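job 3f2a | input accepted
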Amino acid sequence: MKRIIADIQQGLMEGDAQLVKEKTEQALTYGIKADNIIQEGLMPAMKIIGSKFRDGELFIPDVLMSSRAMHASLYVLRPLLASSKLASKGTVVVGTVAGDLHDIGKNMVTMMLEGAGYNVIDLGIDVPVKEFVQAVRTHKPDVLAMSALLTTTLDELRDVINQLKEEGLRYQVKILVGGGPVTPEFAMAIEADAYAGDSFHAVEATNRLITGEVGFFVVS
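job 3f2a | predicted structure (220 res):
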């Protein structure tokens, strides 16, 4: 068991999606449970990758390859997660605000949250205010995670939160924001619940929001 888990971790570190997929399938044939593969294989390796990224030892293309490798494992595991305790961890709606076509960061957050056991509804990029509001009304997520990567789209984050207030939906969902130009001070000013500095911290922030932590906080 330890050898297969180590192989999965090595594949993640190298960004080898095919190897990770094959080793995940092999692990299942050996009777290793899906949640063990995630908790003992995927998440520890991605935590190391996150640390290396923050220390400047890895760059966005490297992290993206590792994230895609993790997604290959999740593709194999997802059918088994329906009966897993991880599948009911919570629902997160994710999207990049209107006027912003950046998707790398959002995709990384989505894959990381899925790996952590969340049901993720990805609205995509260039998402208008009304779509975010409708998604909260329809899906009733535990967390709404929004990103803005352009200074010109920062006010979209504020507009979504204000519209949720107007429609009486704001306090039914926790709001997490992030992205290049977003600062903790801005996040607090628009009355988000939390700010995350990158995709790895987004998972930690979501965990804290899901467990009911109150008051604005920063994870970076």
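job 3f2a | Residues 2-86 form a domain with the Methyltransferase, Methionine Synthase (B12-binding Domains); Chain A, domain 1 fold (CATH 1.10.1240.10).
job 3f2a | closed
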